[in-house]
Amino acid sequence: MAAAGFQVTGVDISDVQVERARRLVPAGTFIRADATTIEFPAQSFNAIVCLYALIHMPLASQPGLLQRAAGWLCPEGWLLAVTGHSAWTGTEENWLGGPAPMSWSQADAGTYRSWLEQAGLQITAQEFIPEGPGGHELFWARRPAG
């Protein structure tokens, strides 16, 4: 996106991932912060992309984050998010062969749909993304014009 002339802002809680992003997208702005507590001014972004991130944040923090993200969008701005399809909270040891456990905390697709609508976003598309024996849900949502 930055290569196409768009301003890009990324947020990650991991120093390693922020440094990696800075190397890969030197024209972008990358902030090491907790996405569940970060604040941006209203109408700061034309689009917000949240792929496979919400499901690793505390479930209780997710509705508030979606509410704030809706406010960060400009009118007619887009949110693209991958969420849980089925509700599940748990930890997997040695996830992807790594040394650290990975935690999940996700609601079901209907709950995410409700949270997005409660945030004032209009869902324009929802699609199941299969993965292994389960999968995730992909939402396209838009902030209304007025």
Overall spatial form: globular
Name the helicity range: 10-25%
Number of helices: 3
Instruction: Please trace the helix and strand order, writing H or E for each element.
Output: EHEEHEEEHEE
Radius of gyration: 16 Å
Could you report the average pLDDT, rounded to the nearest whole number? 95
Low-confidence stretches: none
Largest sheet: 4 strands, mixed
- Spatially, the strands of the biggest sheet line up as 3-4-8-7
- Structural category is alpha/beta
How far the N terminus sits from the C terminus, by CA atoms, comes to 27 Å
Strand content: 35-45%
Number of strands: 8
Account of the protein in words:
The protein is of the alpha/beta class and 146 residues long. The chain is 21% helix and 38% strand. It is built from three helices and eight strands. The strands form three sheets. Strands 3-4-8-7 form a four-stranded mixed beta sheet. It has a two-stranded parallel ribbon with strand order 1-2. The longest helix has 11 residues, at 62-72. The protein starts with 8 loop residues before the first strand and ends with a strand. 21% of the residues are buried. The mean pLDDT is 95.
Brief summary:
With 146 residues, the chain is an alpha/beta fold. The protein has helices at 15-24, 62-72, 109-118, and strands spanning 9-12, 29-32, 45-50, 73-84, 88-92, 102-106, 122-131, 134-142.
